[in-house]
Amino acid sequence: MRVNFTVNGRKQEADDVWEGESLLYVLRERMGLPGSKNACEQGECGSCTVRLDGVPVCSCLVAAGQVEGREVVTVEGLADFAKQRAEHGGCASGACGTSLQDAQQWQSKPAASRTGENGELAPIQQAFIDAGAVQCGFCTPGLLVAADELLERNASPSDSDIREALSGNLCRCTGYEKILDAVRLAAARGENQTAGQGA
Amino acid sequence: MDFLRPASWEEALAAKAEHPTAVPIAGGTDVMVEINFDHRRPEYLLDLNRIADLGEWEVGEETVRLGASVPYTKIMENLRAELPGLALASHTVASPQIRNRGGVGGNLGCASPAGDAHPALLSAGCEVEVESAARGVRMIPIDEFYLGVKRNALQQDELIRAVHLPKADGPQQFSKVGTRNAMVIAVCAFGIALHPETRTVRTGIGSAAPTPIRAKEAEQFLAAALDEGGFWESGAPIPPSVAKQFAQLASGACNPIDDVRGSAKYRRHAVGIMARRTLGWTWESYRGNAHGTKGGAQCA
């Protein structure tokens, strides 16, 4: 079957999708977006976390046919998603988003390296790098999507808020302390920025 | 496999009538696991996500009509006052990602004895609204809903539309044993609801019998003890001997098995402990102590 949906702000079409296929499979194998990781395939690890109409979900448990006409944000589109949110409160014009090609080639390049236009990171991504919250990196995409959504609805989360929001994401390097540090860091930076704007 | 995408409830009923083997999929948190692991290859998947009505709830005078697909997150956020037991149980479901997708309809459709919603549904007392194109609406009392391991009272052409729960008339609690707080299938679970208006107590036990069950003897014993002692009027503390007997009867109601998550002996023991503790919490709350109804972070 064919599935039409929006990925990172751009309309996409997937053909020859098997009816029992997951959204995760479509993203990774049909759209060439391997950022969302495939590990447990049963919703336990959170490494495939994406936003579905704004809501964090395990993409391995969403049937591809269920996303028809809906909006998905993956880790590849997170930087632009966060930018649009900060600058315009979301994508109003419809001209923003991350093209499939850009998303497929997306690499994390910290702002500090000043490599130019591809170097843009979402604040949560920069915070993960600065706090040393990435070890093997496999759980990182899911954690970034989940943590970004937490900070979107709760700009100054308590430690228990953070723990709860990330409770569906497993890190088998068990680098949880640094991950918590990274979310705290992103939250603190967000607050400073707001204060700096005199808001 | 065929993917059916009804745009309305009527279309969904028609599709289910035409294809009785179709597997309904809403949050997908159970069905997709089975498909991902090749445990199930349904001929038809019946997607219910497009039926907005299933994700809505109505708070009436005396009852809440909870759409089958209302995600656990929404229950926690919006129905804590009306359905405290179910809200507490919802909060223990898996992880935020799963709670954003899964709902009570899936728990009922799957009818696993380990489903987190069951003890709360049993203790609150409720009716399940199911419907078929041929015979219309049927209201199934929750006490008649669970028939066996992963078997429920649903006919092949029926779909679960909503659950009708009475608004809480007293404190309710839920407790669950697992190896950690998040992302865990219950080793066993216990729900309790005090119903001061009818001077009754209802319970629900999860993962300690082939189906979710009530501890009816324990309920009857406690209701009689509370009545005879004038406890509902006086609000006096429940004597430890009464709590102990209640716990023993709750434990005795179990018919558990040994499995990878825990032994039958442990489950009986833990259910007794949870019965005693949740009774304490709810009764403290009934007596006017704020301890019981607000408790989101209590451990059993």
From TrEMBL, chain A:
InterPro entries reported for this sequence: 2Fe-2S-bd, 2Fe-2S-bd_dom_sf, 2Fe-2S_ferredoxin-like_sf, 2Fe-2S_ferredoxin-type, 2Fe2S_fd_BS, Beta-grasp_dom_sf, Diverse_Oxidoreductases
Organism domain of life: Bacteria
Key words of the record: 2Fe-2S, Iron, Iron-sulfur, Metal-binding, Oxidoreductase
MF-aspect GO terms: 2 iron, 2 sulfur cluster binding; metal ion binding; oxidoreductase activity
PANTHER family: OXIDOREDUCTASE WITH IRON-SULFUR SUBUNIT, XANTHINE DEHYDROGENASE IRON-SULFUR-BINDING SUBUNIT XDHC-RELATED
The name this protein goes by in its record: Oxidoreductase
Organism: Streptomyces noursei (Streptomyces albulus)
UniProtKB/TrEMBL annotation, chain B:
Pfam families attached to this UniProt entry: CO_deh_flav_C, FAD_binding_5
Gene3D superfamilies to which the protein is assigned, alphabetical: 3.30.465.10, CO dehydrogenase flavoprotein, C-terminal domain, Uridine Diphospho-n-acetylenolpyruvylglucosamine Reductase, domain 2
A GO term, aspect molecular function: oxidoreductase activity
SMART domains: CO_deh_flav_C
Domain of life: Bacteria
Key words of the record: FAD, Flavoprotein, Oxidoreductase
InterPro entries: CO_DH_flav_C (IPR005107), CO_DH_flav_C_dom_sf (IPR036683), Diverse_Substr_Oxidored (IPR051312), FAD-bd_PCMH (IPR016166), FAD-bd_PCMH-like_sf (IPR036318), FAD-bd_PCMH_sub1 (IPR016167), FAD-bd_PCMH_sub2 (IPR016169), Mopterin_DH_FAD-bd (IPR002346)
Signal peptide: none
Name this protein carries in UniProt: Carbon monoxide dehydrogenase
Organism, as annotated: Streptomyces noursei (Streptomyces albulus)
